[in-house]
Structures are given as C-alpha cells and as structure tokens.
TrEMBL record:
It comes from Jiangella mangrovi. This is DUF4234 domain-containing protein. InterPro entries: DUF4234. It holds the Pfam family DUF4234. It comes from the Bacteria. The keyword ATP-binding does not apply. The chain crosses the membrane at residues 12-31, 51-71, 92-110. Keywords: Membrane, Transmembrane, Transmembrane helix. Residues 15-77 form the DUF4234 domain.
Length: 125
C-alpha cells in the first residue's frame, strides 16, 4: 500500500462534477489537491485554504484566482519532479484552460495522476 497523499482521480469526472455542482466540487477538489501536494512534497509550499480563498473571495480583486491557478500548475510540476516523473505540467496551459469551460481541472488532474501512478508503481512491482 502506498503512503502517498496524492490520489488518482478520473479527470473527466472531476471536471464534470465541477460543472454539475456549479463549482462546489471544484472547491473541494482544489483544496484536496493542494493539501495532498503539500502533505507529500516538502518543496511544495501552499496553504490549501489560502488557495481556495484566492479562487473564491479573491475573485473580488480579479487577479488572485489567476495567480492561484497558475501557481497550482507550478506545484504540480514540482510534485512531478519530486516523484521522479518527467515534469509535463505547464502552468500556462492550465491558466488558459481555465477560460475554456474550466478544463484546467481535467488537465491538472491528468498531470497529478502521473504522480499518483508513480507512487503506486513500486507497490505493484
């Protein structure tokens, strides 16, 4: 059994639930992925509640949601590198996909799954 906090989730389901629940699942997902990366990787510095606050009430100032989304992509890239995975997450792609029906959720989860899969590999061997 792996002891990694980063969990594998279906990117399409994470995205669909974010849409169907009018963003409620997104906030839950956003908190979890930031907390999981923080728990697993000491190089990833993030306050998960702060990240959620940035994409919610930070929207009143306009800029914080975009900065937080970009920084989450950076954290995923750091987690990929730390897990021994080729860092393929591009924060700017996530930022752009944020404007396309919130597809950054699926993109970021797809990239996080590479971290979760790497953690599960030794257990399967």
């Amino acid at each position: 059994m792996d002891d990694r906090a980063v969990k594998r989730r279906d990117p399409g389901i994470a995205w669909a639930l974010s849409i169907i629940t009018l963003g409620i699942y997104f906030l839950f997902w956003y908190y979890l992925v930031n907390r999981e990366m923080s728990d697993d990787f000491p190089d990833v510095e993030v306050n998960p509640l702060g990240a959620v606050a940035a994409v919610t009430i930070g929207g009143l100032i306009v800029v914080p949601p975009f900065v937080s989304t970009y920084n989450t992509g950076r954290r995923i890239r750091i987690a990929q590198r730390a897990a021994g995975v080729e860092p393929s997450c591009r924060p700017w792609v996530g930022l752009l996909l944020m404007f396309v029906l919130g597809l950054h959720v699926a993109y970021y989860q797809l990239k996080l799954n590479t971290v979760a899969d790497e953690a599960a590999e030794p257990a399967a061997a």
